[in-house]
Amino acid sequence: MPPIDPTRSPLRADFLLLLVTLLAAAGWIFSKEALAGMPPLLFIGTRFLIAGGILALFALPALRRLSLADWRRAAGVGLIFSAAISLWVLGLHHSRHLGESAFINSLGILLVPVVARLLFGDRPPRTTWIALPVALVGFMLLSLNAGFRIEPGQWLIADSALVFSVLINANSRVVRRVPALPLTAIQLVIVGLVLTLASLPFEAWPSRLSAATLGWVAASILFASTLRFFLQVHAQGLTTPSHAAVILMLEAVWTALMAAWWFGETMTLLQLMGCSLIFAALLINRWYWVRRLFKRC
Q1: How many angstroms separate the CA atoms of 272 and 263, rounded?
Q2: Are the CB atoms for 119 and 109 separated by under 8 Å?
Q3: Which one has a higher pLDDT value, 200 or 243?
Q4: Angle in degrees, CA 95, 96, 100, rounded to 5
Q5: Rounded to an integer, what distance in angstroms lies between the CA atom of residue 30 and that of residue 191?
Q6: Residue 143 near residue 154 (C-beta atoms within 8 A)
Q7: 3-state secondary structure of 29
Q8: pTM of the model
């Protein structure tokens, strides 16, 4: 990861990260609309393959300097990313409530220190063990809203959150050797290739795509993938990972608000309580950095 430049304004990093959360939230809307005209694996494979190719153009000098071992490390993380994003897009395809799904997806942030403990022996902060039961109660309330059962979309999004927590841990270690921008470009291309190929035997490809579907796919590629990841890599180079994580938690909030505006989604009392508890767990998990953020403001 590029070194943090202390001469840069921290407010610039905060603004860019806030913009990243808005782009990520918009990506949920773009993706849901695109899935109305494309099968899930084909959509996400095409989206990431093109977005990765665009990012690779910006990262070309850095890509040329990578060793074969660096390429192998980046490609290996790309395979984990493929598993995570395939579960996510299948969950989104089956989801009946985007806002709820976004909060379930954010559970991946809570699981990062737990996975780090299991895989690498890292010691999670005490706040993690306080936050986890709060988040679990929140998830249980969301499942109660479906009539004492967990829906397929909820299962898939929860599984994707778990794999995303593995991905974040793997990324944090690989990025020490491989710069963030070429690493991201390689990962997106790997995801695109793997899922497009996986789509061939399992999905029926449409003979033609409507102009509306193509427009949503283009928006997903340009704004929710290329611009989002480019800005995220740049902004994370201006601040610390923990500080960035606090702001990135807002993605679920923006997604719920955008889904309410675009699709007219509303939340039942159980859904609202469940999502609120999950967000509270995220704040508890990052309480030290949340306090620092408010003090700086």
Answers
A1: 17
A2: no
A3: 200
A4: 80
A5: 19
A6: yes
A7: helix
A8: 0.90
